Amino acid sequence: MDMMEEGSIAIAPTAPVRPRNRDVEFPFRPDSNFYYLTGFGEPEAVAVLAPGREQGEFVMFCRERDPQAEQWHGARIGLEGVCERHGADDAFPIGDIDDILPGLVENKSRVYYAMGHFQEFDQRMLAWIARARGGARSSGGPGELVMLDHLVHEMRLFKSKAEIDVMSKAAQVSAAAHERAMRVCRPGMAEYQIEAELLYEFTRAGCRAAAYPSIVARGANSCTLHYTSNSDRLRDRDLLLIDAGAEYELYASDITRTFPVNGRFSRAQRDVYSVVLAAQEAAIDTVAPGRTVDDVHMAAVQVLAEGLVDLGAVKGRVKGIIRNEKYKRFYMHRTGHWLGMDVHDVGDSRIDDQPRVLEPGMVMTVEPGLYIAPDDEKAPRRLRGIGIRIEDDVVVTGSGHEVLTSAAPKSIDEIESIVGSG
Ligand code: GLY
Ligand code: MN
Ligand code: MN
After folding, report:
1. Tens-digit pLDDT profile for residues 248-302
2. Catalytic status, residue 226
3. Is 243 in the pocket of ligand 1 (CB under 6 A)?
4. φ, ψ (nearest 5 deg) of residue 186
5. Model-level pTM?
6. Which of 20, 37, 48, 144 is the most interior residue, by most CB within 10 Å?
């Protein structure tokens, strides 16, 4: 509310419930901005921030207690509960919002609202504002609609101690899941059976959802960056790339590990893995206050480009390869992204077209990779079909950084001693 202009109001709905098939809904997940502001996890809720409102500045619309509905669908916190437990100053039944909201808005000059996320709510919002303005000839009501996203996203970019604690838990659970996948892995298993092991480890630790669909990609499937069908069988000499992270209290983790299905890297696999690991370590070392997201990316690119020359995959001088972006044939994505309630979290990564400077409390992934397509006839034959990514979650601290996901094994020796051992 301190960030809002005088005479303004902010309106933040939670996400709608979405149908999965007839009579069955997807598990409900609150909208990240709404949950960040309220910590309230029930569906059908709208938070209103009205600085200066005498009867209460933080108003919540939510479901009323209803013993019959609760017997079928579970407990509701109700109007009193949302004030007591979530800090609302005033609460109204969600069913009354059409009658009450225009009145809250009518004497304001500006409304903060994130247009474009929930179509149906957008329509209702426009109708309420039109009603508050009192028709085309009136000069009353709000004249300005401002995106609420920007204010909230800038806050979400900087994680508090409490948020880092929650993210650490998500990270540790995910690291344990990757280790479990390594232990149980055997040639002949299906990719989805490995996925089941990951989800088992998430769920038993209290993480009831994955932060994003798990990628379990054997062999050349790893060269498809968003492979999620996870339906192939693992073969003896394959590498397996797993990109999977748990969500805990709506905060994501995001880990990738790549390891040999039979527990031994082949010579070619080891050569490429060593390059990606060195690139990732160089990039992680760059994460510190005052450095930029581009510094982190370029630290990885430098090592990858050198490695591609050594591997015989790209010819020429490293400087020229970087300038002409010839490495992009094998490394076509960025080295990281913000991480938080959304796996690709909010917050500007460029300001005035300059790369964002890192500050304490920011959390980012560091995830270089090399992907040599199976049909790339210009690449050395021994490297074709190898895809490797290594991804960790890193917090910027006052003096440098902390890796939240360091418990997930990644050195060649560790991996070779763990894979297939359980
Ligand atoms: N798992 C999505 C990503 O690594 O960005
Ligand atoms: Mn990522
Ligand atoms: Mn990932």
Report:
1. 999 999 999 999 999 999 999 999 999 999 999 999 999 999 999 999 999 999 9
2. yes
3. yes
4. -145, 145
5. 0.96
6. 48
> Residue 23: left (phi > 0), alpha (psi -120 to 50), or beta?
left
Give the span between the Cα atoms of 304 and 298, in whole angstroms: 10
The architecture CATH gives domain 158-418: Alpha-Beta Complex (3.90)
Q: How far apart are CA 35 and CA 346, in angstroms?
A: 14
- Least Cα distance to 220 among 184, 187, 258, 254 occurs for 258
Which tens digit of pLDDT belongs to each residue from 2-34?
999 999 999 999 999 999 999 999 999 999 999
- Top mutation candidate among 365, 388, 389 for ligand 1, by most atoms within 8 Å of CB: 365
**Torsion angle defined by CA atoms of residues 185, 187, 189 and 190, in that order, rounded to the nearest 10 degrees:** 100
Select from 146, 171, 195 the least CA-distant residue to 255: 171
Instruction: Decide: 392 in ligand 1 pocket, CB within 6 A.
Output: no
CB of 333 closer than 8 Å to CB of 344: no
Sketch the domain layout of the chain as residue ranges.
8-155, 158-418
3 Cβ neighbours under 8 A, 6+ residues apart: 151
